[in-house]
Amino acid sequence: xxxxxxGKWQLYYIEEKNANIHRPSQLTKSGYKCIEADVPxxxxxxxxxxxEEKDPYxxxxxxxxxxxxxxxxxxxxxxxxxxxxxxxxxxLVFDGIDTIADIYLDDILIGNTENMLVEHEFDVTDxxxxxxxxxxxxxxxxxxxxxxxxxxxxxxxxxxxCSELPYIRKASHMMGWDILPRLVSAGIWKDVKLxxxxxxxxTQAYYSTPVFYMNKIRMxxxxxxxxxxxxxSGFVIRVRGKCQDAEFEYTVxxxxxxxxxxxxxxxxxxxxxxGYGEQNLYTxxxxxxxxxxxxxxxxxxxxxxxxxxxxRFEKGNQEFKMYVNEVPIFINGTNHIALDIxxxxxxxxxxxxxxxxxxxxxxxIRCWGGNVYxxxxxxxxxxxxxxxxxxxFTFGNSNYPQSExxxxxxxxxxxxxxxxFRNHASxxxxxxxxxxxxxxxxxxxxxxxxxxxxxxxKVLEKxxxxxxxxxxxxxxxxxxxxxxxxxxVPEQHIWGPRAYFKDDFYKHVTAKFxxxxxxxxxxxxESLKKYIPDKDLWPIEGNKTWAHHSxxxxxxxxxIGRRNTLMANQVRILVGKxxxxxETFVKVSQISQAEAFKFFIERTRIKKWDMTGILxxxxxxxxxxxxxxVVDYYFDKKLAFDVxxxxxEPVCVMLDEIKGWERAVYLANDTNTDKTVSYRVYTxxxxxxxxxxxxxxxxxxxxxxxxxxxxxxxxxxxxxxxIEEGKKHISHYMAGYPSFDTDTILKxxxxxxxxx
Length: 756
What we know:
This protein has 756 residues and is α+β, with helices and mostly antiparallel strands. Helix content is 21%, strand content 32%. Helix 5 runs parallel beside helix 8, helix 12 (562-575) crosses helix 13 (582-606) and helix 13 runs parallel beside helix 14 (639-647).
């Protein structure tokens, strides 16, 4: 049974240096400010709702919340335990508290928390009785005061100016990142509930399918249960699964509270990534029986599939190729960042994000390590739509404490996260962190011992081994072994100088797999006007409001608007000058971004299997930002979104870069079935057909289907049409070298936008 404790709470707050109470019963006479709070929620949203502060999403208002980093917060709520809320034990669960907190029932301290990212459970069996009323209180301390008293070694450091980051287990971006503003926050940001549980119950159910052969798949499973029975004779574990007309059942005596076993499933309905087959999901129930009576059950939705990562670091023979059900999978995907700067709002945006990923034909999402961990709903949606998930642990771009105390905290966090997500078919990779190997590689340390990060090399690796042993683990993204660097390993983040998107840096990428690659694109004017005052809309360079929304830390840095100047320079590359008005600038910036993403994706697909995939950066903004995202915070799509959707079609016709006098045309088939494709490539202005025909292509293959003459540097817009299985697809190619005439490319993109 479950009693949900969300809803309206009272929120008391004061600057922590003036805090003078130690028990919840003292709050009403404390003199602290008090407002109504929502749970789940964040204190910033409550302050705005109460009229105490202005909206942190607009203008430069988020700076006004920096003073609250040194405040203490008390949440209180009166709860009544129903007389029929029966259980052998009672567990109070906080799915998310941000961050350093004490938990009270009346004036009794029942526990504390130090991690925003995972759930916390407290056994309150001895503190409650049915039919009684209690005051549940949560005191949240200032994280800045907490961590400023920690001992920081000279090796420890945070990302950018955020040296406070390493000690605190919050989402890293909350201290400020290059894609999201500093908003340190506090609050009960997830559900609160009281559980009534039985003494005899299943505590863990684990499933994996590591081997598929001769139309059989091997199921491995593990169970853990707890009981107050004096002996274990008579206990049985039964596993039952059903998907449409396919069923299986397996029973094994439970001689102990812990057990691992396995069995073969004939003719399984397999789970496949998008484009490669159906996303079959089995409803699997694990029953705990005692003397033939079901005592407890747990039901999961799982997919039967194998996964393998073929990875080699050997120079000249590197590899980073993924296989599902023994079939190599080419990856077209994106990166998932914070859905919102106030994470209590994440759930409002989750379904829309996955719908966008599906719409633009992604088959993988990487969950970036500067974020919180996603919700279970995220994985359920990815299971349902066939989107594989690469899950970073939430460590990024920082040197974290290398102490036994911190290692224990990390292991506890990882264990909780792994247990929560490990039964999802969509989850294929765990990764230790985001760019920490890259970060330490750039600090000029004298040897590998100085770079060594035990968290990713030992602690997290052990957590995966112990709790999800059939899943692959990467130490970092990118992972950089001894004697390698960021650009000679198989998996890379492709950022570089971020100049012309077809310059030598991007054309001659050495990666087998790209896990990050992005390019700036200005949001639409309608979105900009929602958070930038009219007087500050133009010009953009040297503009503080624009700088703030491109997350420039101009309170510290002496140059305003580095990233906006970068975006402006990318526009200058494309059309030779900066447009004179905002409307034209926005359009040209979005064209620049769209063409960059198109080049990155097509270049990777044309080089299949010399390259094995790309996860571009990124799909959706987490606040009203000016960034690489192709959909802004308000879900307004930039031009790049539809361009990406077209070039990520599983069956796709693409034009290569010109070589000599010839431009080659390629056909990609990233599906699990052979295809016959008819195609035509023609010039937009003249309507001249330069190549047409029909081609048969085997499943999973790429092939060159022809080439045509072109004078290098000729500026033309090509339209590409192809039909497979009766469905017509369309794309484009913009030929020529910059700079382009502004009016010409605006005309072309009006056509491109309306191609569908």
